[in-house]
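for ur thesis appendix - Terpene synthase. copy paste whatever u need, i formatted it the way the template wanted (i think)
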Amino acid sequence: MNTASLGMLPFYCPLESAVHPGLREAERRAVDWIDRLGFCPTEAERRAVLASHSADFYARFAPEADPERLWITACWVYWGFAFDDARCDEGELSSDPARFAAMAGRVQRALEVPGPYPCADRYAAAAHDLGELFRGCATPLQVGRFVRAHRGWLSGVQWQVGNAARGRLPDLDEYIVMRLHSAGGEPTYAMLEIANGAEVPAREMDTLAVTALTEMAVFVAAMDNDRHSFAKERNRGQTDQNFLSVLRQRHGLTPEQALYEGVALRDRVLCRFLAVRERVLRRGSQELRRYLTDLGHGIRGNIEWGLRVPRYLARSGGPGDGPGGGPAGTASRTTADDWAERPLDGSAGPPVLAPSIAWWWDDSLLRPDRPW
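the 3d part is after this line
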């Protein structure tokens, strides 16, 4: 599978594109935070983190966010990419499950503890500062939802690290379950309420329909990230746990078949997401409508960001000029060739190879005697 093969299939995404007008100010304040916390000890690490264009990334997820909250949520994205590169995908802990678990537990606890908390580890110290920033601007329920989502992300990464240590490649269904956590979509979407200052009532957020919509949005973004990151990960020898590798090695497909089948599954899920979201939007509160609309913004924005961000443009030779590898907003330069008019698969039923997500197609979620 080469990079050119990945470019053969454009992205199906009939969702609105949007970006927060305060992107540049959010980027400036987030970079100031990175420099103040000092979790990038070398200039090379700092350049790599800024080249993630994380402010651009999250400005597309929450295009109507409170500017005083947008920069804080962008800080977590910068931190997450730095942590992912240093501790999850690379480094001595990335294939040592026991040591990774202990480290991740300390980082998670640093995020959770309010007030002064000494942290020798630079990533834990930054996580604690983020926790303090979140507690200073968000409600206890919003912070609690984010903390639980963050814990889910680290547990998924631990699963991934365990597979790497054993040299084990999961089948498609197991990979999907792991990736729903390890992709980092849970905390990324959990921050929407914080960024927007809009708390979704539990009677809505905790329904099966909204849970399914959140999982579907995470799934689509995770599959798109697999496509975005394949060239980067291939150059670093990290492609074992990727939907392309899973379909090739565990399910016996050719590279071309693996790409087609993976993208077709992604498109099928996106079609289901759009159908369910349309029905839920009709009766949701203003806060829920904001959240569900931004789930869609996140799907679209993640594609736009990934198509142009230096982090994934391995063939470009590295980050470009400027403090973040190029000016803020460079991820917006997509072309018509990047987009598909129709899904590869718009089937109404659940996929055979992925029973763990079949419940997303259960129309009993939308029965009149249930909230949605």
